[in-house]
Amino acid sequence: MKHYIILILLLLFTRHAYSQKESLTTFSSPFDFPLIMSGNFGELRVNHLHSGLDFKTQGVSGKKLLSIGDGYISRILVTHGSGHMLHVRYNNGYTAIYRHLSGFVSPITERVDNYQYENETWEVSITPDSTEYPVHARQQIAWSGNTGYSFGPHLHMDLLETESGDYVDALPFYKHLIKDTRAPAIQSIMFFPQAGKGVVNGKEERQAFTPGQMKPIQAWGLIGVGIKAYDYMDGTNNRCGVHTVSLSVDDKEVFRSVVDRFSTNESRMIYSWTYNAYMKSVIEPGNKLRMLQAFNNQNGLLTIDEERDYRFKYELKDLYGNTSRYQFIVRGKPQSIAQQDYTGKYYFNRDKVNSISEPGLELHIPKESLYNNVLLNYNVRIDSESIANTYQLTDEPIPMQTYGDLYIGVRNKTVADTTKYYIASIGKNGRTTSLGGKYENGFVKTRVRELGTFTVKVDTIPPQITAVNPTQWRSTGKIIFKITEKGTDIASYRGTVDGEYVPFGWEIMTNRIIYQVNPLKVKKGVKHTVELVVTDECGNKGVITIDTIL
Ligand SMILES: [Zn+2]
């Protein structure tokens, strides 16, 4: 009995403490000017879910970035993709990641400088311990910027739950500072008849409709539905992602997405959740996004098997409660459904290891790499003149969660040096993308994370380097080179002044490699020899040497 009372007291106490912690968690603004967002949590990006909030910085770089709470700087990074970055671990259980910064503040600036010269690398990764750089709320910790993969000056701020490492939406902490009276809106509704099982308006292809202009849709069998939709905020034209989407049929909810948390691993599952910019109200077997829920034991797919009207309703809501509703009718009408022909075709079952062994082609995909089962449309374009055949596995690229191994045989060894061969993926427009690869016993091998169309190509051309306005380097204090690379990507580069390493940074948006001259390392006003070597994935080296006064 006594134990019970203690247990109950303990439970009451912990529950109380927990809810108190939740309600007391606050963060201050990262800036000393009004907040306007240009991107929200979880919005759809080309190959990932946006992991944080984007804040506008009044059109410029170099705004003071203020710590949003008390804690310590737990990581200092310089990367090509996110530019200068800081992780700050806060005492309240959250960690913030600030990206695209233009620079750090003292003494971190000096530490990063030294790291770059000592390690002869532009990219920096430092993990300080909790005592090195404590910070308090509103203290300046860096300068906002536009570095890395960024389309204009802004701050990207992620908020992670430190313990789980999950990305969470930071907007609930800033709602009171940001005005939003605009509801999300659907641009287009898409139907996904399931191959061999369903049909929409007499067709088996995906079909899109504009809401409000829809005549009743006639369907039969197994179908899915999805929407292209955006949320909007006051004072900005940026399109954001939609926080809550709910689909109901005949007043019964069948699917719901609530964009509030995901892990790094889940972020790629955007490929399964979406088709182009459409969010499917269907959960494929390999889609483990915790933000999605289906309630109809068909993972959101719908069976239209009665000759009647099915009333579909979408309800979209943002965090402020702004809501929009869309209704349309799907009319059950028997239509013939063409059976899928599996004869002589590869069928990949996602629960199994999948392989292809054909002349000149080997493909091995681990279990559960695919998000769904796939019927391949395998086709070979045999060309005895070219380096290799072109292998089409699927009409459209089908991304996977994990990598498979791909081997393609070389028919004609047009170049003796085997390091020059690489596997290229060929897009619908004919554009090729390098997937790298290594030559071994007549085959080029690489890893693929997408099914599509592949062949082997050769790259023997070194990256082209041009000096950008070298006469101005002295006055601007910036040494700038422009890189042009066809074929494979840039693998590495190294810049020196008078034979000594200096940290050049690679600006991926402009393909420029830049060194901000440090007068402590490079004497001003005298003649120097600047050299830059750029190497592509096939080992082709481009070299430029310039003698000039800096
Ligand atoms: Zn961002």
From TrEMBL:
GO terms for molecular function: metalloendopeptidase activity. CDD domains: M23_peptidase. Coiled coil: none annotated. This is Murein DD-endopeptidase MepM.
